[in-house]
Amino acid sequence: MSLYKQIALLLATFTLFQISSFAQDISGNTLYMQNRYGINPAFAGSENGVFGALQSRSQFSGLSDAPRTYMFNVHAPIKNNIGLGGGFTSDSRGAFDYTSGELAASYRVGISSRDILQFGLSTGYIKNSLRASSIATNQYVDSSDPTLETGFFNETSFRFRTGVWYQHEAFDISVSFPELLVEGQKFHEHIIAMASYKFEFNGDWQLMPSVIYQSLPYGSDQADVNLKLEWKNLIWLQGGYRSNKSGLFSAGIKYNSINIGYAYEMASQELSNISNGSHEILLAINIPVKRKKKELTQAEREQEQRMLDEITLKEKKLKEREGQIREMEEEITLLRKQLGQEVEGVEIVDIDTASIGDKDSYILSIDAEGNEIRETIKPGNYIVINTCTNSEFAHHLIKIYKKKNIDASIAYNSKKKFYYIYTRRIKDFDEAVTTMHKHREAGFKNSWVLVYK
User: Fold this and answer.
1) In the 8-state DSSP scheme, what is residue 49?
2) What is the pTM (predicted TM-score) of this model?
3) If we measure between CA atoms, which residue out of 246, 429, 439, 287 comes closest to residue 354?
4) pLDDT tens per residue across span 241-283
5) What are the φ and ψ backbone dihedral angles of 208, each rounded to 5 degrees?
6) Neighbour count for residue 316 (Cβ, 10 Å)
7) Cβ 238 vs Cβ 250: under 8 Å
């Protein structure tokens, strides 16, 4: 290896070790969208089942002792909107080793059926160590330097991280603090913000743009912009750009509950002479969990049985009403034939509402002696269930409905010569429309609203 390459590797290794001691090398991940819990504990329990992921990243390919990172985590939802998770990370950078472990919990707040807000908090440890034997023979390192003694770097600290995640339908946004607090150190200003939106088209395709921005405590801030294309939730491709002037490419395949992904980051211009880029591999599995049915108390079982009985009774009444309506329709069809009242051109169908405002409209009824009585029609919204052009036919319809315990009346427009058979007059228009739809559900499919002003 040339002198230039050795010096560059030593400098890069030492600098990256300092950053990873605080940032867990999260800044270098590319497949974070396939393992979101890895960057934010608020995603603990976000999958529908037990989710486990094994992730491996190899940076500066082509160099010996280049950074290598291995990460494993698992999380799952449990009852009462709570999620639990845990993970382990191992990072090696030349002579420096870094390991960490954690346990996490999240809590979901159901804002609405379309909105989710979830909070997460984790606690764990960080262990840093130096393998002095790996640099003892390097001619550019002074092995007598007391700072290179193993005990100088070896330390274990406790740390906390936290985050929040908000989802509105296909839109996701999250903010996390990967090193909110590390034992014996001041508050770290490492912040990760991520946002994405999922577009679905043609039934089989999904297009998801995403952006992640990191405010790093050491070095320049970093931003990634990615665009992912997925087909039938089976195969996906993703391309992106990182603000350190490197291109990002990844692809993966899903089979049942298994997701396999690969990512490649092109080496930036400054490192292109000594590195072939970085590689990342992900193996994730999501095992759906069948929840056991809750054991009900005696009171709950009785209440559930009452609800089932009410549903059964309503279904029975609905079937009886449907049978009555069929019988009425058969009688009405026969009556039309007898009186020459053809359906075509008589019934008003395929409309919801119609309005009349002239003074030639009346309410018709028959007195005890069989005489027809006309009353002035009142303004309102009339729920019409049938229409005809013959007085005798209209009054026969009223008798048919009354035999089935349906209270119906006649409104007549002498100008149009139409008889409207209605069930109710309602002042409020919105209430009338709601009632009309209930009539249609009950079997009067041609119900509509006659608005008289």
Assistant:
1) S
2) 0.59
3) 429
4) 998 888 999 999 998 889 999 999 987 666 666 667 889 999 9
5) -130, 105
6) 10
7) yes
